[in-house]
Amino acid sequence: MATEAYRTRLDPSVFRLPVERIREGYYSDAYFNFTKRLLEEQGRCPTVTMQVFQKLDSVLGGIDEAIAVLKGCSGRHVDDDWAPGWDGLEVLALHEGDEISPWEAVMTIEGDYSLFAHLETVYLGCLARRTLVMRNVREVVHAAHEKPILFFPARHDHWLVQTGDGWAAHVAGAIGVSTDAQASWWGGRGVGTVPHGLIAAYEGDTVAASQAFADRYADEMNVVVLVDFENDSVRTSLEVADALGDKLWGVRLDTSDRMVDRALWHEMGEFKPTGVTPVLVERVREALDAAGHERVKIVVSGGFDSEKIRNFEDLGAPVDSYGVGSSLLRGQNDFTADVVRVEGRHCAKAGRQYKHNPRLQRVD
Predict the structure, then answer these.
(1) I need a labelling partner for 165 at 20 to 30 A (CA). Which of 65, 74, 273, 325 fits?
(2) Is the distance from CB of 277 to CB of 271 less than 8 angstroms?
(3) Checking DSSP bridges between strand 149-151 and strand 90-93, what pairing results, if any?
């Protein structure tokens, strides 16, 4: 079930929907627009029950956005005005972050079908995208045994999806996101690390770049420094920790999976040495502790997904936080909407039927 924090639904204004274009069917599959137009022209206004579901064990996302679409965009044109349709609908729905089962109804819509026939593409898309992110983030959170997960896939997809994806990741348990847009729906801010680009701007001097960054931003955020610029994470971590002292919160290991960090050159042979490995994390932790920097955290990134995180945890790698990127956008979590009753009587395509779900709650 969703936590109590997410039982109160997001206000529709949060989503900044392009209401006029959605009402016009601009984002809808054309056949739904044709259907709405035909029903209106014929004066055919059947009261239907629409049932929305998916086919996986998953975590529900996008439901408040889907409801906002129905609230703001259901209805019809009357002369030159838009007559809203929400008051003519009865909508029952689950909540953001609810765990859901295959074929379970996450939302039902009852009312004049011509009021909302044009919206199916849009609200299903909201649910599919956000639920995919929710499920993927929840998987890595569980794999990490509740260690902090940093949501870092912004660069792997179009910027327009950032706001909703960030919210989904937040609800599913990610402790931080990388852009202000991703954090906007709960009033947060993006977090990050001293990037390779800044280090390059300081002629490859990680310490100099980190000192400049910490002097400017240590009072505003936890300073985390990428330490793989010279492919020598142990040495660079120690240099940065010595130079920054209490201004340093953590170091981030991000070695390319096509390279072997210099710290491992003399002990290869019994483990895969490329990229960020449990052994590399251990060597960095040992070095920091031996130098009196026990308080410095270790963040790892670079190709992490739930399977890789689970492997690190099983091996007891001393990771404090995982930065996860593109894997959180992979896969699919498709939703389907079916009319299952018309005028209160069963009327569904073969293989589908109305399924009562006592978990559904009426939406005001």
Answers:
(1) 74
(2) yes
(3) unpaired
109, two tokens:
């819509």
- d(C-alpha 100, C-alpha 284), whole Å: 40
**Residue 47 to residues 73, 90, 114, 268, 349: CA-CA distances in angstroms?**
18, 11, 9, 69, 17
Can you say whether residue 105 is alpha, beta or left, with left for phi > 0 and alpha for psi between -120 and 50 degrees? beta
Provide the 3-class DSSP secondary structure of residue 122. Answer: helix
Q: What is the pLDDT of residues 236-252, one digit of tens each?
A: 999 999 999 999 999 99
* Contacts of 269 by beta carbon, 8 Å cutoff, 6+ apart: none
Q: What is the pLDDT of residue 265?
A: 94
Q: What is the number of alpha carbons within 13 Å of residue 215 lying toward its C-beta?
A: 7
Q: 4 pLDDT band (50/70/90 cuts)?
A: low
Report pLDDT digits (tens) over 289-320.
999 999 999 999 999 999 999 999 999 999 99
Q: How far apart are CA 252 and CA 195, in angstroms?
A: 10
Token reading at 145: 């045994």
In the three-class reduction of DSSP (H, G, I as helix; E, B as strand; rest coil), residue 205 is classed as coil
| Side-chain half-sphere exposure of 202, counting CA atoms within 13 A | 15
**Roughly what angle, to the nearest 10 degrees, separates helices 206-217 and 233-244?**
40
Whether pLDDT at 5 is above 80: no
Length of the chain: 364
Average the pLDDT over 65-94 and give the result. 97
What is the Cα–Cα distance from 295 to 306, expressed in whole angstroms?
A: 26
Beta carbons of 325 and 153 less than 8 angstroms apart = yes
Is residue 327 within 8 A of residue 133, CB to CB? The reply is: no
| pTM across the whole model | 0.92
